[in-house]
Design brief:
This protein is an alpha+beta fold. It has helices spanning 5-20, 28-45, 49-55, 116-123, 184-203; strands at 58-69, 72-83, 86-98, 103-113, 128-129, 137-138, 156-162, 165-166, 176-180. It is 34% helix and 32% strand. Strands 1, 2, 3, 4, 5, 6, 7, 8 and 9 form a nine-stranded mixed β-sheet that branches. A hairpin with a 2-residue loop joins strand 1 and strand 2 (72-83). The longest helix is centred in the C-terminal third of the chain and has 20 residues, at 184-203.
Length: 204
């Protein structure tokens, strides 16, 4: 089969649609557990990690962001924005790319907001894309050392790390974050089932 730009476009749209329907969605309990694990790894493996987290106004955690692809690549993950220790909104992250890329893998993504305006722009947007709606300064191994939070010049700082620690040369350009509400469908189904059960008892 001949691979054409039109074919790539259709494939990209199809994949985006499939992922956006929530077929890969996890439960809130699963997401929360993965977030805690990711934060523990961050503070353990990243020098000065605790200081970064304490200085941030908001912490966006997307744990276990999966990457796969051959001709069409994509990365997908689910997590939450944490403010003052509370998960105030859940998100899914999606990145798509075209080109020869073979293999699968996962990584954790943590984005820290050090500015209230930057965080509000993210929180109140209907969809927020890296490089379009805001710039994220991703730190590499060489940039992480003795941490002085008073010298932070970037309102949004990101960390990407895997099994071997912090990953270098990562930009996550084009990654889009969209709000999700885990377990909503399940709760609606349970509520509807309870109503139907009640109605059956009344009619009997």
């Amino acid at each position: 089969m001949k691979i054409t730009p039109k074919f790539f476009s259709l494939l990209t749209l199809t994949l985006t649609f499939i992922l956006s329907t929530g077929l890969s969605a996890k439960s809130m309990k699963e997401i929360d557990a993965a977030i805690e694990s990711s934060l523990n790894r961050f503070t353990t493996e990243i020098q000065g990690g605790d200081t970064y987290l304490e200085a941030a106004r908001g912490i966006l955690v997307i744990p276990r962001m999966w990457k796969a692809g051959v001709l069409l690549g994509f990365e997908f993950g689910e997590g939450a924005l944490i403010v003052d220790g509370i998960k105030i909104q859940y998100y899914k992250a999606l990145t798509t790319s075209v080109g020869l890329q073979v293999g699968v893998g996962s990584k954790d993504l943590i984005i820290l907001f050090f500015d209230d305006t930057a965080m509000d722009n993210f929180l109140y947007s209907s969809g927020w894309e890296v490089g379009v709606d805001g710039a994220v300064a991703f730190l590499s191994r060489g940039a992480v050392g003795a941490v002085d939070t008073n010298t932070f010049k970037d309102p949004i700082v990101g960390f990407v790390f895997g099994q071997k620690g912090l990953l270098a040369g990562v930009s996550m350009e084009g990654t889009k974050f969209t709000k999700i509400w885990p377990d909503t469908a399940t709760e609606i189904d349970q509520e509807q089932e309870a109503i139907e059960t009640f109605n059956e008892r009344v009619t009997d």
